[in-house]
Amino acid sequence: MVEKVEVPLADRSYSILIGSDLLTALGKELSDLNFPQRIAVISNPTVDQLYGSVVRTTLEKSGFSLQHFNVPDGEKYKSPETLQSIYDFLIKNGFDRGCGLIALGGGVVGDMAGFAAATFLRGIPYVQVPTTLLAQVDSSVGGKTAINHPLGKNLIGAFYQPEMVFIDTTTLNTLDQREVSAGLAEVIKYGMIHDSHFFCWLEDNIVKLKNRDPLTIIYAIRRSCQIKAEIVEMDEKEGSVRAHLNYGHTFGHAIEKLSGYGQWKHGEAVSVGMIVAAKISAQQGLCSQQDVERLTNLLLAFDLPINPPDFSLDDYVVAMQRDKKVKKGTLTLVLNRGIGGVSLYKVKDISSVFSPLL
Question: How confident is the model at residue 83 (pLDDT cuts 50, 70, 90)?
Answer without folding.
Answer: very high
